[in-house]
Amino acid sequence: MALHGDTWRCDPATGAVAVPIYQTSSYEFQDTAHAARLFALQEMGHLYTRLSNPTTDVLEQRLAALEGGAAGLAVASGQAATTYSVLNIAQSGDNIVSSTDLYGGTWALFANTLKRLGIETRFVDPADPEAFARATDERTRAYYAETLPNPKLEVFPIREVAEIGRRLGVPLIVDNTAAPVIARPLDDGAAIVVYSTTKYIGGHGTSLGGMIIDGGNFPWEAHGERFPLLTQPDPAYHGAVWTEAAKPLGPVAYLLRARGVLARDIGAVLSPFNAFQCIQGVETLPLRMKQHCSSARLVADFLAGHESVSRVIYPGLQSGESRQRADRYLHGGYGSLIGFELAGGVEAGRRFIDSLELFYHVANIGDARSLAIHPASTTHSQLTPEEQVMTGVTPGYVRLSIGLEHPDDILADLKQALARA
Ligand code: PLP
After folding, report:
1. How far is ligand 1, taken at its centre, from the CA of residue 209, in Å?
2. Which residue ranges run through the membrane (predicted)?
3. How many domains does the chain have?
4. CATH code of the domain in which 252 resides
5. pLDDT < 70 stretches in the chain
6. Does residue 65 sit in the same domain as residue 196?
7. Is residue 163 part of a domain?
8. Cα separations (Å) of 153 from 159, 179, 386?
């Protein structure tokens, strides 16, 4: 699927096997009737790169296929993907129910920016899936969660919450950024998957990007009153009813609106160049994930046996319900993120990070290189102390993203940095 999952075989114009970078903003119409048909959605085709592009199209198809979804929309970043995924079904006066276990940027988006647009986020503890049901009312438009949220690294109860949502008519949106290939949220009942492709999918720390994948499995029309943006005439697009407009194309009403309205009107789309970079990443993604996961396992075991380390946070080392969830939803590995705390606290954490030689000290995950950061003073610093506690950020927590270097080199760097911490 990573290599052949879409309809691409070679470039129809030249026979080029690698997907060419169609670095064009626009596409010449055959005649005025053709142009009118494209604008009226009576015929599919490229008309302007804010709406679609041949290079980006290959990436969208391939990731949708890899994920088991119906269609994809590539956007400029993971944050754009999350923003669009909510705005596509929620408007002022509506609410969403979100897991507390979130990337700090997503927390800030929900708690502040969406709130200012009139969309309320009700944060609930995912350890109790029924909390999602209790927080739901008639204006709830979506549930939101991350499969493998850092820093807590407690795998989200996807099936449990998706089932509650199916009962109440609420789709589950899952950010699967930290667990591509190893988790399959759509198979477990999620309706929409979003990615920051900046991380493992791109895989080389070169290009920001995001993806929204429509699972094509949510019965929007059966809950029509909850989703007027999809089931009522949309003045943003000639009065189109998206659930109707999508019928000739398949179960892609959600994705069609995201493209036709949000990508068109707000415009944070992926550049063709970044789509090309991302396609190169996807082609080796399953192999890289295997190596990320196997090296991370070695590192987690090493840290767990080290005298200076007071706690290791890693799904493969959890017990009880957390471990059961990790084993239910992750297949073939536990990802490459590891959290740990040093017995020496914050100061030891700082000395550790400053002593690293191979690891990069950066605000990223899922690079080919090994990375380390101190979330409390960086990625989660914009959160209040209470919010930091809720998301699992403790002052002495260090996060590692294990890369593709030889495991001996990774362990050697950790050993010398721990000795100096
Ligand atoms: N989701 C998760 C889980 C992340 O770690 C990040 C990291 O930045 C994002 C979303 C946002 O992605 P981007 O930086 O591509 O906007």
Report:
1. 9
2. none
3. 2
4. 3.40.640.10
5. none
6. yes
7. yes
8. 17, 11, 19
Of ligand 1's listed atoms, the one at least distance from the Cα of 79 is 16
Residue 119 Cβ contacting ligand 1 at under 6 Å: no
Same-domain status, 269 and 297:
no
Quick one: pLDDT at residue 371?
97
Single out the residue in 213, 246, 273 at which a domain terminates: 273
Q: Which of 217, 240, 273 is the last residue of a domain?
A: 273
Output the pLDDT for position 114: 98
The pLDDT, as a whole number, for residue 385 is: 79
Question: Residue 304: its pLDDT value, please?
Answer: 98
371 lines ligand 1 (CB under 6 A): no
Which pLDDT score is estimated for 399? Answer: 95
Clarify whether residues 210 and 323 are in a common domain.
Answer: no
Half-sphere exposure of 418 (CA within 13 A, CB side): 21
pLDDT 10s digits, 368-403: 999 999 887 787 777 787 877 777 778 888 999 999
User: Can you say how many angstroms the Cα of residue 337 is from the centroid of all Cα atoms in its chain?
Assistant: 15
- Give Cα 336 to chain centroid, integer Å: 15
- Percent of the chain's residues with pLDDT above 90: 88
Question: Is the domain of 212 the same as that of 294?
Answer: no
Residue 365 Cβ < 6 Å to ligand 1: yes
Judge contact between 82 and 258, C-beta under 8 A.
Answer: no
Ligand 1 centroid, distance to 34 Cα (angstroms): 39
Residue of 148, 177, 270 to test ligand 1 pocket, by largest number of atoms within 8 Å of CB? 177
Which residues are registered as beta bridge partners of 122? 97
In this structure, the answer to whether residues 101 and 206 fall within a common structural domain is yes
149 CA distance to ligand 1 middle (Å): 11
pLDDT digits (tens, 9 = 90+) for 316-348: 999 999 999 999 999 999 999 999 999 888 889
Angle at 109 between CA 78 and CA 104, to 5 degrees: 75
**Same-domain check for residues 305 and 159:** no
| Distance from C-alpha of 325 to C-alpha of 154, rounded to nearest angstrom | 8
- Cα(381) to ligand 1 centroid in Å equals 15
- How many angstroms separate the CA atoms of 111 and 105, rounded? 10
Q: Which domain holds residue 208?
A: 32-273
Indicate if ligand 1 lies below 6 Å from the C-beta of 175: yes
Q: How far is the CA of 352 from the centre of ligand 1 (A)?
A: 25
What is the atom index within ligand 1 of the atom nearest the CA of 363? 8
Are 347 and 234 members of one domain?
no
CATH number reported for the structural domain that contains residue 295 in this entry: 3.90.1150.10
Gap from CA of 212 to ligand 1 centroid (Å): 13
Looking at the fold, whether 243 and 307 belong to one and the same domain comes out as no
Q: What are the structure tokens assigned to 68, written together?
A: 């088991």
